[in-house]
Design goal:
104 residues, mainly alpha
């Protein structure tokens, strides 16, 4: 009967290994589902960010066009909208940022 006992023991070991392997596969499936969800969220966030960038770009262009309408006394052409905020700040006599506001 030792052969039968040995066969039974091996069968139990194989069954235990199969259960462990099934648990491992299940755990991997759950992990991959989470990765997929995170990937979908990232893709959605990237699309929203892209749309926001487009909106901000349009707003910035509109604001630039509005600001370009105004002329500052003593400003030269090179300080116009083509030179951006630094040129405008220089034309207004600001160093690199607008003057500090007085404390309330």
């Amino acid at each position: 009967m030792p052969a039968i006992d040995r066969t039974a023991e091996l069968t139990r070991n194989v069954a235990a290994a199969c259960r462990e392997q099934a648990a491992g596969v299940d755990q991997m499936n759950r992990a991959m589902t989470q990765v997929e969800l995170v990937t979908q969220r990232n893709a959605s966030a990237a699309e929203e960010l892209s749309a926001t960038v487009e909106e901000i770009t349009a707003s910035a262009e509109s604001l630039r066009d509005l600001v370009a309408y105004f002329r500052v006394e003593g400003a030269r052409a090179e300080h116009g909208p083509a030179n951006g905020a630094r040129g405008a700040a220089k034309a207004l006599g600001w160093a690199s940022r607008p003057p500090a506001r007085a404390a309330s």
